[in-house]
Amino acid sequence: MEMQYPAPFLSKFNPNTLPSNIDWSMTNPLHADGSDYPCKGYNHVLGTPEGAVTATFAQGGAYNFTIVGTAFHGGGSCQASLSYDGGRTFTVIQSIIGNCPVFGSGNFDFTVPSDAPAGNAVFAWTWFNNIGNREMYQNCAAVTITGGGHRKRRLDIVQPAKLAKRFTPFSARPANFIANVGNGCSTEPNKDVMFPDPGPDVLLNSNNVADVVGVCKPIGGAPTSSSPSATPTSSATSSAEPTTTTAEPTTTHEPTTTPEPTTTQQPSTTPEPSSSTSSSSELHSSSTEAPPSSSSSVAPTSSSQAEPSSVSTSSTTHTEPTSTSAPSEAPSTTPSTTPSPTSTSDSSTSPSAPTHSGFSSASSSSSIHATASPTSTAPATTSSPCAEATILRRGVAGPGKFLVRRRRAVSD
């Protein structure tokens, strides 16, 4: 049996072969020692006029190869392969298990992988016969693989078969099967060999199959798996898996706002001395300045409301407030945020800053404690029976200012 289409090297079917170089024994198997593998040794004509291309196939196209002859040896198993390195390695594109070849003439379908490299290649048909000596047959032809397009299939014979296909990148397809040529393995007589790795395109025509006997070794420098030297033009990276990187969300922390003290009482009007006060205690205000911190911003770390201290009922006793707001040590470049008792804050004051002044109830003459602005220079006042009390009033002298109103204390 021999391949008719595509026309092999030095074949009588090849119009490029010189009549004097025609191999009339093209139907013979390869040598038992594998010395004429691959292609019966005829791949040496590549690059010469006799090695010119005899067929053109397109990526993804469906075609068939034709085998003719009468000594079909009960059929067997065949493979169609492509080589891009002159026949040193082959990549399987179709495996047919059983009923290949057939008596007389037979056309066997194959599809060029859509990611097969475009360019010149060697197409090979290999056959392992069912009946007779354990032999290997191989014919090779020069072909060209073009990028894309399809050609109508030549379907002269319909092959009854079970067809299983899956997409596999060309670079991941197996090498062609080699046996019966002194490489350590052989096929079982009267059986259709089941290829150890037939590839993704397999046509199963037989239930009389057998595995290979022995361990197959590469011959002639051919590896056990084939990877083409040419780079696919259409899908060179189709098997690459993409890396999805999931970005962790960034949590934005809202700035912490100093809560409004719950015990701070906002004075709405100028406090008048209560007539129901049981003692002649004087109203006092402390203008003692809190030492400014090294930072231009004073941020209370806890409640900035100073609790008023006890004031005795004696008119001559004065108790100064003992608590001051703790300045923050964290440096800041923002304007001063010292809370002001005024209802209208300056342009740099935080809207949620608490008021640092408060008044006690009228039943007990407690002192009023207010933290002065860092820029205040008002001196501290002392108390006496007839001393003047300094009462702070807001909202009169403008935003961020205090109006000092002095009234002489009325003694009983």
Description:
The chain has about 400 residues and is an all-beta fold. Among the domains are: about 1-215, Coagulation Factor XIII, Chain A, domain 1 (Distorted Sandwich); about 265-290 and about 370-410, no CATH class. The model is unreliable at about 150-165, about 225-395 and about 400-405 (pLDDT under 50). The radius of gyration is 51 Å and the shape is globular. It is about 0% helix and about 25% strand. A hairpin with a 7-residue loop joins β4 and β5. The strands form six sheets. Strands 2-8-7-4-5-12-9 form a seven-stranded mixed β-sheet, with no helix packed on it. A three-stranded antiparallel β-sheet has the order 1-3-6, with no helix packed on it.
Which class of secondary structure composition applies to the elements? mainly beta
Largest beta sheet, briefly?
Answer: 7 strands, mixed
Sheet with most strands: strand arrangement = 2-8-7-4-5-12-9
> How much helix, percentage-wise, in residues?
under 10%
Under CATH, the topology of the domain at 2-214 can be stated as Coagulation Factor XIII, Chain A, domain 1
> H/E element string?
EEEEEEEEEEEEEEEEEEE
Contiguous uncertain segments of 5+ residues: 150-164, 224-397, 400-404
The number of distinct helices, counting runs of at least 4 residues, comes to: 0
Task: Kindly list the characteristics that best describe this protein.
single chain; 412 residues; mainly beta; Coagulation Factor XIII, Chain A, domain 1; seven-stranded mixed beta sheet; three-stranded antiparallel beta sheet; globular; Chitin-binding type-4 domain-containing protein
